[in-house]
Design goal:
The protein has about 290 residues and is mainly α. Helix content is about 70%, strand content about 0%. The protein is built from ten helices and no strands. Helix 2 crosses helix 4, helix 2 crosses helix 5 and helix 5 packs across helix 10. The longest helix has about 40 residues. The protein is globular and about 65 Å long.
């Protein structure tokens, strides 16, 4: 059955693209849940761990009530009226359009971000499917892409790059390159180590010079993740793209007074976008860059 399905998709690539697009829309809906709930789950765990660690100091301080929260429970509801979201109100993109961006019961506005996440996830997945076709590379890069979408938005919202997402993707990058699917294993291992240690060194140099922390440890791990998938050779072009885009956006935010100079700006989204682009077109970009500076 599996071989027949592969043969069908290879014979009819349009059907493969459509399947990836629709399936990724559904994945995008689940990513919205992860993006919203995972940071809350982490904060709840940190709160409980802190109370346990400081048990003597806080024994007279009432503990706040924490509702049990997982990625599957409780069911999704409207934040205003607590209306339980029915399955036909949770169809990716279409339900938001049909409901005109409002709750089906209280008419409270539903953020356009939800359908945008679903649509962007599907479009990025479609690009991968078109570029790599019916292959193991497509499957692996789809998983990575979905993880990067989560990491990007969580970092924007909370200045966090959760280990629960970063580390499995880093180890997956090393595992898939045991057989050299993307790069030789030696390049992947060196890439992971180089990615982590390079930003680790920049972090401490910046801190020694300024007394401030220029980035978080999650950024080191995310860069190491790309080293594991890409190898060490493409890391310079990746960090160059991420730094340039980050500098342009940061300066723009300051000029338009959306941020102050002292206000932190997450670097993870720029790494994620630059890394995704490098995964797909890095060799071509690197060749063009070498020609330009020669």
């Amino acid at each position: 059955m599996f071989e027949q399905t592969l043969a069908f998709f290879q014979q009819y690539p349009t059907a493969f693209y459509l399947t990836v697009f629709i399936f990724s829309l559904c994945i995008g809906s689940f990513l919205n849940v992860v993006i919203y709930r995972l940071p809350k789950m982490m904060h709840n765990n940190w709160y409980l761990e802190c109370r346990e660690f400081l048990s003597d100091e806080v024994k007279n301080v009432p503990a706040k009530e924490i509702t049990e929260l997982t990625l599957s429970k409780p069911d999704s509801t409207c934040p205003k009226c607590q209306h339980k979201i029915r399955f036909y109100e949770n169809i990716p993109v279409l339900s938001w359009l049909f409901l005109k961006g409002k709750c089906g019961q209280c008419k409270n506005k539903i953020s356009i971000r939800y359908p945008l996440v679903e649509a962007v996830t599907a479009l990025l997945s479609l690009v991968i499917a078109i570029k790599f076709g019916v292959s193991i590379e497509t499957l692996l890069l789809l998983v990575l892409t979905w993880g990067l979408v989560c990491l990007t938005l969580i970092d924007i919202d909370h200045m966090l790059l959760p280990d629960q997402l970063v580390m499995p993707l880093l180890w997956l990058g090393l595992l898939v390159n045991i057989n050299g699917i993307f790069v030789p294993l030696s390049d992947a291992v060196i890439g992971a180590a180089t990615g982590y240690m390079s930003l680790f060194g920049v972090f401490w140099l910046f801190k020694l010079l300024t007394g401030k922390e220029g980035m978080g440890f999650g950024d080191f791990k995310l860069f190491a993740l790309f080293g594991a998938w890409l190898g060490w050779q493409l890391l310079p072009i990746l960090i160059l793209m991420a730094s340039v885009v980050g500098a342009i956006v940061g300066i723009s935010l300051i000029l338009f007074k959306s941020h102050t100079r002292e206000q932190a700006i997450p670097f993870g989204p720029y790494l994620a976008v630059a890394g995704w682009i490098t995964l797909l077109w890095g060799q071509g970009i690197w060749s063009w860059y070498i020609i330009q500076i020669s």
